[in-house]
TrEMBL record:
PANTHER family: PROTEIN CREA, PTHR37952. This is Protein CreA. NCBIfam families: PRK10756.1. Pfam families: CreA. Transmembrane segments: none annotated. It comes from Rosenbergiella australiborealis. Keywords: Signal. InterPro entries: Uncharacterised_CreA. It comes from the Bacteria. The keyword Calcium does not apply. Residues 1-27 form the signal peptide.
Amino acid sequence: MNIRYSARYFKRLLAASLLILTVAPQAANSEEIGSVDTTFKILGANHKIVIEAFDDPDISNVTCYLSRAKTGGIKGSLGLAEDTADAAISCHQVGPIVVPDAIKAGKEDGDAVFKQRTSLIFKKLQVNRFYDKKRNTLVYLAYSDRVVDGSPKNALSAVPIMPWH
């Protein structure tokens, strides 16, 4: 195989890979509650703040609300834009909570409960859950990471485990 055919094959493989990544389902299981536009774009969708809700996948009766920036324009409409690392989170007890022993044991870096792609390949918004044994509280940390250079921007929400009446 000569170099010209190898380059053409590589380009096709790269294009197919990018297409698969663009249409691949998100790891996050959330539902959009609403959004507000922040910047008008003549071409493509407007920049906006999106509000999503997701339930903790391992602990019943904890729901988190996440607001995050979503880039519009032509790149945003095609899924090629990189969203900023800005996000806010608020988590709440919506019924009786039973924390499994495996979660009570805790991990130093917490358990990932939400992940959403915020750029084509290298960046994602994550929420990790921590258990504060001393205060019997679940703590949720929202942050953005990137393969090479993450962001120190983060948001925090705590859910004290209370008797449910």
